[in-house]
Description:
The chain is an alpha/beta fold. Helix content is 39%, strand content 16%. It is built from nine helices and seven strands; from the N terminus they run E-E-H-E-H-E-H-E-H-H-E-H-H-E-H-H. Strands 1-7-6-5-2-3-4 form a seven-stranded parallel β-sheet, sandwiched between helices. Strand 3 (43-48), helix 2 and strand 4 form a beta-alpha-beta unit. Helix 2 runs antiparallel to helix 9 (195-204) and helix 3 packs parallel to helix 5 (130-136). It is globular and about 45 Å long. It binds adenosine-5'-triphosphate and magnesium ion. Adenosine-5'-triphosphate binds next to helix 1, strand 5, helix 4 and helix 8.
Amino acid sequence: MERSGQNLSQRKRLGLMGGTFDPIHVGHLVVAEEARTRFDLERVIFVPNNQPPHKKAYQVAQAEHRYAMCLLATASNPFFEVSREELERPGPSYTIDTIRAFRARLGSEVELYFITGADAVLEIMTWREPEAILAEAHVVAVHRPGFDLQRLSAAIGPEQGARILTMPMPGLEISSTDLRRRVAAGESIRYLTPEAVVDYIYKTGLYR
Length: 208
Ligand code: ATP
Ligand code: MG
C-alpha cells in the first residue's frame, strides 16, 4: 500500500467524509482532522448518507436529525463543512455518485480525498464501481480497531489495494452503534461526541 504523504501535487485538495453519522461522534471528527492536516486538505466535507444500502438491520435516524447533528458537531471547525448532496438525492447513496457530483461541481482541477475507516473501505471497494472511484478520487483508509487493513489487498486485489492511501493513527474504539446502545441503556455519552450533540440527542429523544 502507498504510504500517506507521497505523490501529493500542488492542486487544491478537498476531503470528503461519507457516513451515516447516526450519531456523529469524536471518532469521525478526529479522523477528519487528522486527514485534513496529513494530506493538507483545504476543507473536509461531511456527507451524511440518505439510505445506507447495507444498513437495514436497524432503523436509521431521520436524515434531518443526522444532518443537524453533523452541523452541530462541526460548527467550531472552520475547515469542516456538511453537505446535503446525498440527502437531496433520492434512493440509496452510492459513493461513486457522490464523488461524480462533487467532481462535476468543482471541476477537474480539484483533487478529491475520500476518507474512510478500515471497515467502510472494504464495503465501498467491493460494492459499486471501485475502479471509477479510484480514478476520480484518492481513497484514504484509516485504522480502526477490530478491522485489519492488511486484509484489504487480499479482498480487493493487490493492484487496487496498492492505490489506496493508508493513514495510520491511534485507534479509537468508538462507534455510533455504541453511542446508540448507551443512550438506550441510560448510560453516559458525554465526551464521546461534542456537547451540543449530546444535548440534541436528549432534547429530541433520539435512540431512547
Ligand atoms: P455504526 O456503528 O452505526 O456503523 P460508525 O461509528 O461506524 O457507525 P459510520 O457513520 O458508519 O459510523 O462511519 C462513517 C465513516 O467513519 C466510515 O468510513 C467509518 O469507517 C469511519 N469511522 C467511524 N468511526 C471510526 C473510528 N472510531 N475510527 C476510524 N474510522 C471510523
Ligand atoms: Mg459504520
